Amino acid sequence: MRLLASRFCSLTAVCWLASFGCGSSAQSSAPASQPGQSSAAPQSAPQSTPPAHGDAVALIDGEPVSRATLDDAVAPQIAKLDEEAYAIRKQQLDDLINDRLFAAESKRRGITVDALLAAEVTAKAGEVTEADVQAFIATNRRRLPADPSALVPQIKDYLATERTKTRRETFASELRTKAHVQVLLTMPPLYRARIDLAGAPSKGPDAAPVTIVEFSDFHCPYCRGVQPTLDQVLLKYPTQVRLVYKHFPIDSLHPQARRVADASWCAQQQHKFWEFHDAVYASAPDASAAAIAGFASKAGLDMNAFDACIASGKADPVVQAHIDEGQHYGVSGTPGFFVNGRLLSGAVPLSAFSEIIDEEIAASKSK
Questions:
Q1: What is the CATH number of domain 202-366?
Q2: 15, 184, 204, 277: which has the fewest Cβ within 10 Å?
Q3: Could you tell me the pLDDT band of residue 147, with boundaries at 50, 70 and 90?
């Protein structure tokens, strides 16, 4: 059982225990053959040569669809596939390296690999105690059932597996250092989504070297939970980070969240988005007319103008455009973040934001 999976609300799954959200996998199709591409098969008759159309991949009534247009449309999906392929290769390479190191060390000691791992991994991983289980339950109490006692065997198995995994990685790292292993496999080029920021509410200086775009759902518990972390980010980087908000209500999980998103857009028209935003997250999820009116009142809105905006339906296409844009760039659940265009999924801790932010700040200084 995977207890610690992800930290965001998904389009396809219900969140449980220490799962911090949900995600859906992207789909892609195989690349089409190129016009004019030669074939290894013998030709029974001469083939006519198609007219040259530069980098066109299709013609519509003679008008070309360029390769650049196609590549731009599929860039997020291709980048994700490249990253997944790299992760698969990296994991397999790590396993191959570790296996060879374990084999070499077992030969040096004159024992079998199983005996080596039993002595260096299993024996040193440590037993899971009742105190460990209770500490895990206390830490994850809000994500566990009211009575977690039935989960104790699963929790013990999970903790034991994690300890063994950690000890195995530590032992492998020790052997790598002694063997001076060099990994030559390189990561794919870094992909940056070009998010449209026009008209989106933001905090922080417009000229900040780092922009974080948050795709969020007002009724997602993980979006609510990450708000203090975002406050910490802005406090830690007051002049270096700008936070931009984008709507991503997930109708299948939170069918009323879109109403709140629409209402927040109307609050934004009165320059009170963040006040409305904070009022929503300070309360339990509620999209009733009374609750929305209460949020608007707390935000200090002109209620007549607010009600007229809600009735106009003008927010609907804006919110949907945000959703469409997020999905195009690989957002499959909430919260989803783009740090200078680099996707970061889930209610991640401050350290995860800081790692990327520090990299981006350093890169901006080197330009």
A1: 3.40.30.10
A2: 184
A3: confident
